[in-house]
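Friendly challenge for the regulars: who can give me the structure tokens for this chain first? No prize, just bragging rights.
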Amino acid sequence: MISEETLRQMSREERAALSRSLAALSDELPSLSAGDERRRRFVVLQMGASVGLIPWIVLLAITLPHRFQRGRALACRGKQARTSHRVIT
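First reply, four minutes later:
Bragging rights claimed.
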């Protein structure tokens, strides 16, 4: 790592050469633009899905009963089955 003090001790030409060398190194590195675009699409998709779930959660909160009693639900289904059996026979 080059310290700031070392950079100050360099001549203007040496700093310019160092700058050109660093710029050439960065040109050789792979571009991240394709990865950035995929990441951006993924984040937008996830945000859309999250926002889309909000109305669904609100709908369920409004329409579902406040308490669920398993035994009562089974009894109602059984009563319906017995009632429909009587009607059929």
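The first helix runs from residue 4 to 9. Residues 1-30 form one domain. Your move, everyone else.
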